[in-house]
Each structure stands twice: as structure tokens, then as C-alpha cells.
Amino acid sequence: MSGAAPVLAEVPQPAARTVTVIGGGTGSFHVLTGLRELGSFDVRSIVTMMDSGGDSGRLRDEFGVLPPGDLRRCLVALSDESALLRDLFSFRFSEAPLAGRSFGNLFLLALTRMLGSEREATEAAVRLLRIRGRVIPVTWDHAHLRAELEDGSRIEHEAGLAEPARDPKVSIRRVFLAPRARANPDALEAILASDFVVLAPGDLYSSTIPNLLVEGIPEALQSCTGRLIYVQNLMTRRGETHGYSASRHVAEITRYAGRVPDAVLVHRGAIPAELVRRYAAEEAHPIELDVPALRAQGVAFVQEADLLSDTALVRHDPARTADALTIVFARLSAKGPRIR
Prior knowledge:
This protein is of the alpha/beta class. The chain contains 13 helices and 10 strands.
């Protein structure tokens, strides 16, 4: 069923409220921020660890650590500390010699060096930031995202998907990890214990699907009785999803997860023309909402709502997205538990 979001008070509220959000980047940040502000859920965040661009990529190359950027964003999103401390962890230097460096990334690097491992550094950051919920790296193994394109060429690292020289019209045939990575046992436990698993919006092949390439994650998603929800992106991404509709995104999610999402949350509403023009200059466009095709794929429930933030960027608004997810949770709960 699709349509405008119903009034929340009219929807029966779910009894079960354990939510695991899987993703990375700004998409997970916005979903987690909204759920934290609601305060009604036991929230776990499973975070991709395959980033190779920006400051995270530099730290990975220079110090041999797992990329901290996505982890940092999720920690900040679920932090109950002051706004000042959250802003500090998001602060990025603009002057040499630290231009482009993130304070939060450097802080996590320092903790890793002091305590001896990324695992202990993450646990310490959780305590220092007073996390409401849990933040769980999808793997502790060091792996790079690789892609094979339809023309037979290959990309050897995650950041290469968005390189300006790459022809965006050459589609991605498949993505994989090298070397292979095993799931963090805590991530598997979180998925299997969840009432709802939410695949956050984000770059399809570089933020969302990398989690599904980790050994054990697809099997956990197929085995868990929790309902699977995909929050659809707002725009296509140059070098990754040129010309992709909503159903094409879901087809790729299903391909790598081995499971069709029970529900898809999509934005329904106008995107300001000036923003559309600005993104078109970067070869990014609003995603076609082909709802009948989603239903034909086996998606049981498509929830449409105005999810757009009132900012200068095309982003999911945390509060609107969390409210819409609450409605999805309630509707899926009314259908009863998933039968494997």
C-alpha cells in the first residue's frame, strides 16, 4: 500500500522496538539522529568499514587503521553528550597542515594507538560520548571494495567509483571485497535480535551494499525474524546509479542481501528546482519512484512521505524520516512476525 503518510495517532503502535540501522555516511547519520531524538527505540548501528576516500582514506593509508569516518558519524548521531562535543567530533580543519582533517577521526586514531586496537578505541568512544544505543563496525577485518564494470574494466577501491574521469554511463556489473571480510559477531547478534532492520539511505554501492558483502551478514538477514526496511535514496549518484529507478535500487539490495525488503520508505514531494539544477550539473538526478515495479518485486509495503530536509542540500530530514519509519514499524507489526 502506498500514499501519503497517515496521522501517527491513527496507527497502532508496535510493541517491539529494537531497531538496527545498517549503512554509512550521512544517510545513517540522519536516520540515527532522528531515532535518537524520538527516544522510543533500542537502536543499534552497524557501520560500513570500507571507505577509502577523504580523510578516512588518508588515515587508512598512513596509519594502517580501519577508516574511522563512517564510525565517527554514527557515534555523533547517537551521542547524548552536549551539542558542543558532538560538533567538536564533526569539526574539520581548513588550514594547513591539518586542512581536510577531521578532529573526530584524529581522536579515534589517537584512542586506537593508546589502547592498542580499533575495538577498544570504539568501546572507549562509546563511553566518552555517552552513546544511546550501540555502534557496531560491520567487520574488524581490513578489506577494500572492488568493482567490475560492464565494459570489463575494474575499480580497485571505493573512492574510485566517483572519480571524475570515469564514464558514469558504464554500469557496475558487481562489487566485492578483497580480501574477504568476516562479520563482527556483535553485528550478527544485533541483526538476529532485531525487530526491525533498516538499510539507511546512502550511496548504494559504496555505503549500503559493502555491508552486505561481509561474510555472515546476508545469512543473518535471511535468518532473522525482524522486518527489513529500505530507506530509498533521494537522488542518483554519478558513477554508481546513473539512471537507476527505485526498483533498480531494491533489485540490487535483494541481489546482495538474498532477501527482498518487507517495506520501502520513499520520498514523495517536490525537490526545489534550483537544487535539481545544481545536482544535475554533477550528473545526479531525482530517483524515479516506480511503485508498481516495487510491488512486483515482492515488497509488501511502500510508504510515501515528505522526507526532504529544509536545507541547501538534498538530504533526508532526521525528524521526518524517523516519524515515517515509526509508521512503517507500526504497519509491519500489525502484519505479525516474519515467518522464515
